[in-house]
Here is the input.
Amino acid sequence: MASVHVLVPAQRYVFAVSNGEAEAATIDSSADGFERYKSLQQGGRTTGMVAFPNTLLVRGERDYLVDPGLIMQGAPVLGAMQELGVDPNEVWPMRKTYVHRIETEAPYAQIVSGVMEMADLEILDGEEGEIEPGLRWMLTPGHCDGLISLLVDTDDGLVVIASDCVGPLPEYFDEMSLPEDFGPEREELLRQWQRIRDLNPAVVIPGHNPPVKLG
Here is the structure.
C-alpha cells in the first residue's frame, strides 16, 4: 500500500499596502487568510496574498511530490523530505511530471511555457487512469479545466488529493454547498465534489485547507 505525507501544510500570508508601507493581517489559518483577503478587498484596500498549498509526498513503488508550491518554499520542502529519509534529488525537480493534456493546451499555459519545456512531461488523456498500482488519477475540472485529483490506496483507506478542486473554505465542502454568486464554475465544482464523495474516501486533502477525514 502507498502512503501520503504532508510535507508543508497549507498557509496564507495576507497584507494591505498603503503609502508605501505593508500592513500584515493577523490570521489563524489558511481559510481565515482567504476570508481576511476578501474582506480587505471589499473594503477598498490594496491587498496582497501569498498562498502556499499543502505540499505532499506520496510513497508507493516510487516517490511522488504533489503541489511543490512556490519557489521560496523549496527549503522547507527539501528539509521535510530529508526528515523522511527521502533524497530530494531523486524526487524533485527533474523527475517526470504528470499533467493533463487540457492544461498544456489552455491559454494560461503560455505563462509557464518556459518551465514546462524544461520538465519531463507525462501527458495524461481522458477522464481517468493509473500511474502505478494503488495510485490513480481522475479529471476533476472546475477550478481549471485540466485539474486532476489523485486517488491513493493506503492502509487507512482511500486518500483523495483534490488540490484546488476542493475549496476555498472548509465549510463549503463540509456542507456540499457554494454561494449562489460564487462564479460560473459553481455547478461544475459541486458535481466534482459529489464524484469525490461517491468514492467513499477516508481522507480528502484540498489544496489550501487541512485534510478532511470522512472514513
The longest strand covers residues 11-18.
